[in-house]
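ARCHIVE CARD
Drawer: 12
Card no.: 0347
Subject: one protein chain, sequence and derived structure
Cross-reference: see card 0346
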Amino acid sequence: MATTTLGAEAASVGPCLATALDDSRWLACTLALIAGGKSNLTYLVTSPAGQVVLRRPPLGNVLPTAHDMVREHTVISALSSTPVPVPAALLLCTDPAVLGAPFHVMSYVPGPIAKLSLPPGYADEPAGRQAIADGLVEVLARLHAVDVDSVGLGDFGRPRGFLARQVRRWVGQWQASQSADLPALDVLADDLAASVPDSPAPTVVHGDYKLDNVVLDPERPGAIAAVLDWEMSTIGDPLTDLGLLLVYWTEPGDDAAAAGYGAAVLGGPPVTVLPGFPTRAALTARYADLTGRDLSALPWYVSFACFKLAVVVAGIVARHRAGAMIGDGFDGIGAALEPLVARGHAALAGAS
């Protein structure tokens, strides 16, 4: 029986899938919102034909380029032939008559996603947790080694002037979503714009690379089954991915500025505080060993990641107040803003 789920109706999705996948069993599909999404809306679609995942932008007004379903579909299609694990791209629909917004459908990849905890019996020992971190960094290094031309992504982005353009874009998004004055964030934006470093050779950039954006192999801790959430991917500076990963990564003993984001967004200490997960310094060293890149400008990238995440949080807060967010866990997310801004200033000043 067809069901209606806010943001996606089975009565519309079923016929679309039945036609695109050439299987009438999708007409009997049901949709369930996958909990935890604070950006795009993600649904598990179930039918007698199997299970797939549907992704669409959030409801209400959204920031430009931040929820790009065409981009996500394009990049996972291109990466399917590389050592970077991604879901299979099944369908892209840009007809607004179906769901009111573009959406795409990809294969469902089973496996745990590590946020606040790991499943019982999974990587219970420190060695297993170290393996998970190693796998995460190794996949990032693989991504940054992809030959963009060979996979058809040569014109996927504009690498020249990438960092300066990124700063301008995120300043514009902050101005678009700003619901209250935050002078310290404005100062951080100015300081970042005045100190943009030279970029290394451009690569595919994920744009939101973190532990809870990957599916872990259910049988082999340390193996990554799939990397998710590619809507902000492009061709640009690979160190923006590393800087963002470090800001997401909480370690034991972090002060309030470093730990505040994870606690506010996830609702508690991230899983990475458990024994066995390495420090941010160890993650950085592993990435340097795998890629050979010069990381002397990394503090700027960490600061920029803090700025970018602060803008994302401000956008979520604005949409939540407008009643345009679906799901739970949004009430306390605004508490992440000040810790992120403080950490951004500290990183740019050279603090660890």
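Annotation on reverse: DSSP finds eleven helices and eleven strands in the chain. The longest helix spans residues 298-321.
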